[in-house]
Amino acid sequence: MEGKPRPAASASDAISAMDDLIATSMVGQQEFARNLGLSVTDLICFAYVLEAEGTPVTAGDLAGRAHVTTGAVTGILNRLERGGFVTRQPDPADRRRVRVAAVPAAAERVRAIYEPYYARLAELFADYSPDEIAVLADWFTRAGGLARTYLEESCES
Fold first, then answer.
1. CA contacts within 13 A on the Cβ side of 125
2. Any alpha helices (H) in the chain, and if so which ranges?
3. Handedness of CA 107, 110, 114, 115 (dihedral sign)
4. Torsion, CA 138, CA 140, CA 41, CA 86, rounded to 10
5. Strand pairing partners for 87?
6. pTM, whole model, 2 decimals?
7. Cα gap 48→52, rounded to integer Å
8. What is the largest distance, in Å, between two alpha-carbon atoms of the chain?
């Protein structure tokens, strides 16, 4: 499959389009979180738990990924646990650590909200050739790494 002709764009045009996508996505995350009875930070932490695909994560892992203190992550986990999103269990190797796992029914609730959006994204990707998708995936991966690095560097304590 060949890619379709694309309009010319500069790096500035791409950054502007990216900024618009990020802003719209942030509003979407707020709405998705509200529909689930969560804050955006709670939803982000739950997404990290889901991303682990059944492998329990530690509270410390979540604190680091979400850029919150371990004290704040305790409050997040309390809310997620009360809401039926996660369970906490002591780490068998270190009883001082807690392992967090998603409750399957909660994972399904979240997937039900996101799946229609992901289906639309899949339709959009169908307009691109495999080579174009490879470029997009490479760019998203590298931009994500750059964003994480910049966040780490600019938010040092």
1. 13
2. 11-36, 40-51, 59-66, 70-82, 104-125, 130-154
3. positive
4. -40
5. 101
6. 0.82
7. 6
8. 58
